[in-house]
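Annotated sample (chain length 592).
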Amino acid sequence: MKIEEIIAKGVADAVKALYDADIDPATVQVSPTKKEFEGHLTVVVFPFLKASRKKPADTGAEIGQWLVDNVEAIAAFNAVNGFLNLTVSAEFWKDLLHEIQADPNFGLTEATPDSELVMVEYSSPNTNKPLHLGHVRNNLLGYSLSRILAANGKRVVKTNIVNDRGIHICKSMLAWKKWGEGATPESVGKKGDHLIGDYYVAFDKHYRAELKELMESGMSQEEAEAASPLMKEAREMLRRWEAGDEEVRSLWKMMNEWVYAGFDITYKRLGVDFDKIYYESDTYLEGKDLVLGGIEKGIMYRKEDGSVWADLTPDGLDHKLLLRADGTSVYMTQDIGTAKLRYQDYPIDKMIYVVGNEQNYHFQVLSLLLDKLGFKWGKSLTHFSYGMVELPEGKMKSREGTVVDADDLMDTMIANAREAAAGRFDNMPEDEAADVARMVGLGALKYFLLKVDPKKNMLFNPKESIDFNGNTGPFLQYTYARIRSICRRAAEELDSCSYADAVPNEKEQILIRKIADFPAVVAEAGRNYSPAVIANYCYDLAKEYNQFYHDYPMLKEENAAVRCLRLNLSALTARTLRSGVALLGMEMPERM
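Output written by the structure step:
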């Protein structure tokens, strides 16, 4: 039982014994004692004055004395006005340390066959370009959220929807067909997703040039866009794809396979994976059928040009396009079909979409439409909305080729790690040094992107993220490696020593309590869908340990019991740090 729970129950028992009044322990307010007062935890006394009919200080003193006399964990108290400050016994902290050590999965809850089944969708790339920095934040948030939910005892299905059809994909296909000259990933020595991304940029370049020429001939921009031969070709290619044209489908399949191979390399390197991958090309027809069925039910309507819409004005929204006049689908249609297939495949209790906040409206509409179509789970969909990642020079644009490529970013981070750690890897074999640089570089990237509240926009600075002394991933990794070095040097003693006769000092008690907070932190991160809660806890724990390490000797401590206590406390800190950062998808090097 947590110390806060022990105190709350003790206070309830005290009020009953002293004043013959019944109170719910859950209503007892227990919080950390302010630094200017003596004690560990403080109880607000004011709610008990009606029962005691005494002054706040007197009521606090009576309850405090009862707790000291009857609750073993409470060693002392002081009452200041309406606040009862309690000092927890050193023995309690030592027993708590032993209890935590005995549980190798402390803070983590395993799922059972009856646990809630949660599906988390993240990544959702388009097959017309490689993954970029925005995708990296999405993947890291989705993967971390999946781990956090699993650590809270949920059954989790990690899923991805690949947007492998549509006008954007046709732009890349058309550009390759016109200007590719038969290039393949092998022939040009380039990852498939990068190669296709080049043709997406090439299409935009030619399209802009075409628009400029048309506007110089006297057309408005709107007229030029409508008259563009290049865009007309792309739309025709999409129409032929949806009609099952063999030539277009064959080209589409070949180019998509190049992209999938490239994606797989990036995902593996980033350390994320999926339990099930859906493809828009398989799901859009399901959505199309549901939308057409919605017309018969009066949920959707068809305009004179043949396009299909949903009137959401009674719900405070607007009219939403679901099928274009030429019969082709939009993203909303695909998402409706995908949702149906997912619930057919899995008995999902909750569905979470990890998608940027620019799509808030989209998911508001999706939830409404699924509900109107009769799916009972429509209203319970959760949009994990997060802010955008920006660079010092501003926003990124894929079609202009100004994005930060995910593969290039990882290369840069690893190179920066090697440079920042100059001298640290000198005594390592080259393969180990390279692996540690990889862990540190990617750890810096992951921690920097995940330590920020997901709802906020953020500015990413690769150099700032690699600092062995700041609020960074490398700082956590260095702390862990330092502790592991201590433990290796004291391995024999750790296996056999006893700290039964040691009395934890104030710093040691604070560190034990910080470790004991881990289960509550994991629970909070799960409730709030926030990897940042885990990241900031790990930083606070590492910072607390480093202060402790600075103030007190470890291996040179002469008292054997105290030395044993500190070694065990160090080992437990390392274990907790490793468990925490694993929920962020980070790895910990054993030495640095």
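Annotation: The chain has three domains: 3-88, 122-390, 422-582.
Annotation: Residues 394-401 have pLDDT under 50 and may be disordered.
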